[in-house]
Amino acid sequence: MMATCRDDEWAKNIYPVTKQSKSHRIALMINNIKFHNNSSDRHGAEKDDWVMFNLLQSLGYQVVRYNNLTGKQIDDALTQFSQHKKLTHTDSVFVTIMSHGDMGIISGTDSKEFETEKIFQCLNAKNCPALVNKPKIIIIQACRGDTVSYRSTSDGSFFIQTLADVFNKWSHEYDIEELFRKVMQHFEASSSDCMQMPTKERNTLTKRFYLFPDRISVIIFGKGELLKKALITNILGRDVSELSNKKFLTNTEIYENHTYEFICTPDLNTQCEYIQYFSKVPPPDMCLVVVADGFSDKDVQQQIDDLSKKTGKPPDVFTVVLPLRYKPGCYSFKSCTIQQVFSELDKLAADRGRTLISMRPADYFGAHNKMENNRKLTSTKVNLVLQGTGGTGKSASGNTILGKKVVMSKLSSMPVTAECQVAETEINGKHVRVIDTPDMFDGFIEASVTDKHVKQCKQLCESEPSVYLLVMRVGRCTERERRILKMLEKSFGNKVSEQTVILLTWGGDLECEGMSLENLFSLQPTLKEITEKCGNRCVVFENSRSDSDQVEKLMDTVVRMLEKRQK
């Protein structure tokens, strides 16, 4: 059993949130837009309605939603909400009212006044015992007599828009008071004349309230950048280049989603205040130490001792992640395999109602169009069609195959190719046409643009047999690559996987880590699954090299595949 470094001490200072309580979250939202006196209509408040409703839903709250209530109807809605059956099991409530107002009052659509003090009376211990010792977050968007609440007729109120931006960005990390502090800091930093500082009327919270206190936090120490990032990529299901990447300390990066937070530390030799990693509330769930192939037991034990001394944590808090070819054995320090890390994270995720590593959705798409490719195959000519996401090295791979720089290429995490590009060469007596394609299946481009790229690619492939090279960077195979293969099948035929070779770029990273393809497959099951679907055809490229061995290996794979399809 792996040790976790989180204890129960932090729980004493936060409001409890459980899987069950989150499933019963409930919120009240009232937004007055249209008034009996048309001149009082709150133009632009429709945007606030949409933004606030979506924010509350994203925070896990069922929203009891009203629009355009009179003063009495606001009172009735609050009274009814205070008796809602879900309040018994929820961990918290939000009450949001948006309208005109004045000091201590909110205006109904009939201009009758509703006193804001009634909100607190309806939800107090006497009138609503189900909410005793539970956070009650009251948000009022209205003028207060002495202050003005600005609203754009096109974008909604500045306060609601700013609040939504802050909560969407930070609600998985900070407690509610810090979130509101960030909202106020945004207004403080603004130079706009239309920015009015929001105020906090009262605060009776005695503990910290985290909307999502159960996110799994993991600190990774040690060397081996590829192993660190491949581990993170596999767990989070996304390339680390696409993840939220922020600095915690000078040399520390944090990669995160709604389930996991990975604090990726620099090399252990880098001067760093490690104690700060443990000062966050709540503290991390796991502390992993990555070691390089051929590690020395003595050196690793010294690293553990140093970490223990710097952080004040016992040595058994730190678990050494063994290189892939190592098996569990008797070491002086606590150790585990990659698979054991996955198992432990699965347990933590299951306990907190989070997505399991082994239970990610395998298919985000529906049924595929059934298309047949009956083209006759020849043995002297072939099209090599480069497919993949931007920044994986498609164009550079095209240049490697051609043996010269013909296709536009540069080191970038963003797409370089905007249109299909074609270049030709001769390799071992076979006429090869290299077709470099843009990221035609990028989910952010319009369908008409995708259709145009697909049509152009099909036209280029009409005359000769085609082999699709699905280009991926070593250690960065995600659901997006699985999606590309699905979209290839949809656009070019459901047997396209029989014509596809997986081309892994940045192969030098594998060598630096002492890893084989089998090691990589065990680390990234998504890559293994995609490769198996493509007949286990996988070739590794290092585009910084000019040797022809890797190209010949690719062509051998291509020829064998074409010969098999001819039979």
What features would you describe in this structure?
The protein is 32% helix and 19% strand. It has 16 helices and 22 strands. The protein has helices at 19-23, 45-58, 71-81, 117-122, 158-170, 176-189, 225-236, 297-311, 338-351, 394-402, 447-460, 479-492, 508-513, 517-523, 525-533, 549-566, and strands at 26-31, 62-67, 93-98, 101-102, 105-107, 113-115, 136-141, 151-152, 156-157, 216-222, 244-247, 253-256, 260-264, 286-290, 318-321, 335-336, 381-388, 421-427, 430-436, 466-473, 500-505, 538-540. The strands form 5 sheets. A 7-stranded mixed beta sheet has the order 11-12-13-10-14-15-16, with helices on both faces. Strands 18-19-17-20-21-22 form a 6-stranded mixed beta sheet. Strands 2-1-3-7 form a 4-stranded parallel beta sheet, with helices on both faces. By secondary structure, the protein is an alpha/beta fold. The model is unreliable at 358-379 and 409-416 (pLDDT under 50). Helix 2 links the parallel strand 1 (26-31) and strand 2. The longest helix is centred in the C-terminal third of the chain and has 18 residues, at 549-566. It has 3 domains: 18-189, Rossmann fold (3-Layer(aba) Sandwich); 216-359, Rossmann fold, CATH 3.40.50; 381-566, Rossmann fold (3-Layer(aba) Sandwich), CATH 3.40.50. One of its GO terms (cellular component) is NLRP3 inflammasome complex. One of its GO terms (molecular function) is cysteine-type endopeptidase activity. Keywords: Hydrolase, Nucleotide-binding, Protease, Thiol protease, Zymogen.
